[in-house]
Design a protein that fits this description.
single chain, about 300 residues, alpha+beta, Tetrahydropterin Synthase, Chain A, 3 domains, four-stranded antiparallel sheet, about 20% strand, Membrane protein, transmembrane helix, membrane
């Protein structure tokens, strides 16, 4: 998902309150680690092993033993980096770099190497019961697509970056729900149900700010569940049904008035019958009853005169 340039708004000009400030230069920064290609290093050590065998054969066993011990120790510097993984390397408690290249490498055997996945992950939040901007209790959940982009921050700046993502996602979701109404409160207003793209953009931007500390990038954030809380769901359903009925009746009445107007105009233009104002009013009343009635009407045929 593409984020807006203004990290301080929800993409529609509304400030995001309660944001976590950017860590700036206070956090750890990933850098490339020192690592030699593993195959040339292995060939070099095989040559050293052959030299040890020669030294032992010519009678310089003590030197061969020393080289053998050193060789065995150096073999502990080999490590493998799998695709979409990284190896975070520390030396005596000091961060020395991250190896992101895939393959077989050798580095200082005194170092400690911790694997960290760079794969894209999904986080499905729990259904949260929160209040929307109007104070109505609702149930909301989201799915977050994310990945680690700074291994140093993910390893050293937070205790558990996966748990950090989960907690911050829940916090951002609660804050987002309080900014929007469930439904449009008025014409042209924004709502959780009526503006899914704007809501997703606002959620992704706020998560991006909060997750900078963990070196995590938010690729997409979408609502996966949205509903009224059970205690008000029935009342809200009746309100929605009433709104739908009123909207439908409004369309029916507008269409009926247009049809009555068209009928009177055609009767007058074609000189079919000349009606006075009283008869026009009666005709309009009858036509409106027929056109707007929810059930079929039973006509009464007048076989006599109009008067």
């Amino acid at each position: 998902m593409t984020h807006g340039k203004d990290q301080g708004t929800d993409g529609l000009g509304t400030p995001l309150t309660g944001q976590v400030p950017s860590p700036g230069g206070t956090g750890s920064t990933e850098r490339r680690a020192f690592g030699l290609p593993g195959v040339p290093a292995l060939l070099l050590f095989l040559g050293v092993a052959a030299l040890i065998a020669v030294l032992v054969a010519v009678g310089v066993a003590w030197l061969g033993i020393l080289l053998g011990v050193a060789l065995m120790f150096c073999l502990g510097g080999f490590f493998i980096v799998q695709p979409n993984q990284a190896s975070v390397i520390t030396l005596f408690g000091r961060y020395v770099g991250t190896e992101r290249r895939n393959g077989f490498f050798w580095t200082n055997p005194f170092t400690t190497r911790n694997r960290l996945s760079l794969r894209i992950r999904n986080f499905n939040s729990e259904r949260l019961k929160v209040n929307d901007a109007g104070g109505n209790p609702i149930e909301i959940a989201a799915v977050i697509v994310w990945r680690v982009v700074d291994t140093a921050r993910a390893t050293f700046d937070v205790e558990d970056y996966a748990q950090f993502v989960a907690i911050q996602a829940e916090t951002a979701l609660r804050h987002l729900a309080a900014q929007f109404h469930y439904d449009d409160p008025e014409a042209g207003g924004r709502s959780l149900r009526g503006n899914p793209d704007e809501v997703a953009q606002a959620l992704a931007q706020e998560l991006a700010l909060r997750l900078q500390h963990a070196g995590v990038e938010v690729l997409e954030a979408r609502l996966s569940h949205l509903a009224y809380a059970p205690e008000i769901a029935g009342a809200m359903l009746q309100r929605q049904q009433a709104s739908a009925i009123l909207a439908a009746r409004q369309i029916i009445v507008q269409g009926a008035v247009g049809m009555v107007e068209m009928a009177l105009a055609q009767l007058s233009d074609r000189n079919i019958v000349d009606l006075d104002e009283e008869r026009k009013a009666q005709m309009v009343s009858n036509l409106l009853v027929v056109l707007t009635s929810e059930r079929g009407t039973q006509p009464v045929v007048n076989a006599g005169s109009l008067y």
